[in-house]
């Protein structure tokens, strides 16, 4: 059965692969699973029809027959569990790869989202100028720890896994800030992710969707 995911039409990132449908597209491409995309507007995600799929009125969602999922991490895990290549066969290695997925979205992503909020949503507030450097230092703490763990390895725990997919997906958001470049091994890690054929296909697909829906 071909799954359908949702993504924003006219995405605010202008197709730069920063919206969270990118992780799901990438996982589907790694898995060699064909998929369809339903583009939705910012208004439509708050309507009852979409909220039936996603209680918080967001993208991405994932529909496969009578299964409907939301949360990019849960969707990527679902895909990874059903296709070869994104999770190791060995039970312990598999558990560690899933641990890295959680680390990406639960430990590394939160301060990155704080920076987005501080810069773009609260950039006009009087406290913003003082808050941004604090949040950047919080991100540096996490990046330093991640950089130490990665060392000179290609991926976080052996072969490329869904853990790397989620971590690279999270770190991509930092490219424009320059913070990633302070940690050359992390910048190279993200570049390795971006160089994967599946990433390139997913990126091209979401860029095309933006170009076709932009006005
Ligand atoms: N925890 C959820 C998940 O991982 O799936 C979070 C989903 C989420 O935040 N979705 C965003 C959304 O639907 C889109 S991706 N927002 C609408 C709303 O909450 O009302 C976030 C996003 C949007 C735009 C950019 N950008 O333009 O750069 C980057 C990321």
Description:
By secondary structure, this protein is of the alpha+beta class. The protein folds into 2 domains: 4-85 and 198-213, Glutaredoxin (3-Layer(aba) Sandwich), CATH 3.40.30; 91-196, Up-down Bundle (Glutathione S-transferase Yfyf (Class Pi), Chain A, domain 2), CATH 1.20.1050. The chain is 55% helix and 8% strand. The protein has 8 helices and 4 strands; from the N terminus they run E-H-E-H-E-E-H-H-H-H-H-H. It has a 4-stranded mixed sheet. Strand 3 (61-64) and strand 4 form a beta hairpin. Helix 1 crosses helix 8 and helix 4 packs antiparallel against helix 5 (128-150). The mean pLDDT is 96. The protein binds S-(P-nitrobenzyl)glutathione (GTB). S-(P-nitrobenzyl)glutathione is lined by residues 12-13, 18-20, 45, 57-60, 71-73.
Annotated CATH topology of the largest domain: Glutathione S-transferase Yfyf (Class Pi), Chain A, domain 2
| Main sheet characteristics | 4 strands, mixed
Oligomer: single chain
Beta strand %:
5-15%
Strand order of the largest sheet: 2-1-3-4
Number of domains: 2
Quick one: how many beta strands? 4
The CATH architecture classification of the largest domain is Up-down Bundle
Q: What structural class is derived from the secondary structure elements?
A: alpha+beta
**Low-confidence spans:** none
Q: Give the number of helices.
A: 8
Shape call: globular
